[in-house]
Amino acid sequence: MDDEQELGQWEFIGRRGGDVVTLVSGSVIAAVPEANRAAEEARRKLRFDFLDDRAVLSLLRRRHDDEQDMFRAGFAHGVPLALVGFGAVLYWGGVALYWESPAARTAYLAVAAVVLVTQLFFFVRSARSHWGDPVRQNLRARARSYREIAHIARRGGADIPAHYPHYGPYPFAATFRPEVDDDEQRVVPESEGSDDH
Q1: How far, CA to CA in Å, does 37 sit from each of 10, 59, 155?
Q2: Across the strands, what pairs with 171?
């Protein structure tokens, strides 16, 4: 699926390259008392209204963009690192290992190590800038909490698709940082619709 496609008024992409999903109204979640309590508790803890449809839609669309950014960064640095590392090992095993001069073998290993360490540095730096960014972590923490609330509502009898909103449980890089001044409560403009959908 082309991620650049135009989404409907209440639609978002559930996973990178995944199907378009329609937002479940906050009123559906709030109708389950346990989910409503969980949403209120999460609202106080994470400073986000999990029953506001426009805010949640914006959150889920930004979470998709975040996942896309992480994938692109990992691909841009991870693939060259893997290819160069694999090539260096193959060249060592097929050619450099059999050179007669120990100095030439040592020089090859030194150059290969420098190249690999340099690429590894850029890979780790890129990963840290995405996974470690506190604003992105707040986004992921809120998306994780929304997923948990939706699952509580589903178990309570609400008409919510399985696995909604189709993001994983975010076992790491989803720590909420209350000290961070972020714009996660920014909502979709009024022209995109009201809360009643």
Answers
A1: 24, 20, 14
A2: none
